[in-house]
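Support reply, case 0932

Customer input (verbatim):
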Amino acid sequence: MAPTGPAETTEAAALARRAGLKYLPDDRPGIRRQRRGKGFSYTRSGDRPVSARERERVRGLVIPPAWRDVWIAPEPDAHLLATGFDEMGRKQYLYHADWRQAADAAKFVRLGAFGRALTKLRRRVADDIASKSPERVCAAAVLLVDETLIRPGSRRHYRTMASVGATTLQAKHVDVKRDLVVLDFVGKGGAEQHLEVRDRVLARALSDLIDEGHGSTLFTTEDGDTIDESLLNAYIERNAGPGFTAKDLRTWGATSTVVGELGPFQAGADSTEKALEAVVREAIETAAEALGNTPTVCRASYVAPSAIESFMSGALAGHWQASRAGKWLSRAERATERVLAGEP
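Our regenerated output:
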């Protein structure tokens, strides 16, 4: 969570306080790391050397040697402990463990609010795609992320690593057969991605964009404007609510996928915790495959803990039985709403 505006800064500062930490972004004075022979030297502002105790604390952070322009928090209880740029020029953040735990908890709290706003977003996407207005292009990109959980993508990642996401897809990556959309591309980390989804509206929208061919990337308007990650997120925020992005859409999708896998499971009276955990692992693997992440990352960052907890406690079975699919939300998503609301 790297705050970028006043609202985000206020939220981050409040979260740091709740975690018992100090809010210290990297625009504040800190400790700088400089290469010295085979190792590093560490200095505060004014080229003041750090103490031996501080040096040990900094070494304990295990900041990758390849990072450059490294900033290190001057205090051990800062929410942000270090930043730097990796070999690819990407800014990296090293957060305090307590901050990460608090931020993850807050993320999943807001996921319930996102679920409540999802019907509004999907209605708008459907209206914009049907309208044939310039907004239909961005709406189609949002629908693709919603249906497949593909990463939004970025031009920088495409230029530096040749990794493709929704906004950097080209016609060659997409095959449409009636209502079936097939995507084949190289994703993050050089992993080959193969995604399939049946959706008549999405198939028609992508087919039209392929036929029109307004730019080198698929999601390009008639005026030649390319939809990028910032425009994609701005569309989601306008139509779902402040602060919501494609990350929320993918997190919701991963959590509801896990709920959909676990909800119908009939646990016997003799089901052991070990057996139930094996079922959870399979559900996580299904969601991870859709996300293009490892199961470990999927479970830690994209699946609300309450989804797994409700399954292990037996509460999810009741949520599943009480849930029915609607026009804009699937049965799994209805059950996810109940889980996130903390219903008994």
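We compared this against your earlier run and they match. Two observations from our side: The two ends are 31 Å apart (CA to CA). Residues 20 and 328 are 40 Å apart (CA to CA). Please reopen the case if you see a mismatch on your end.
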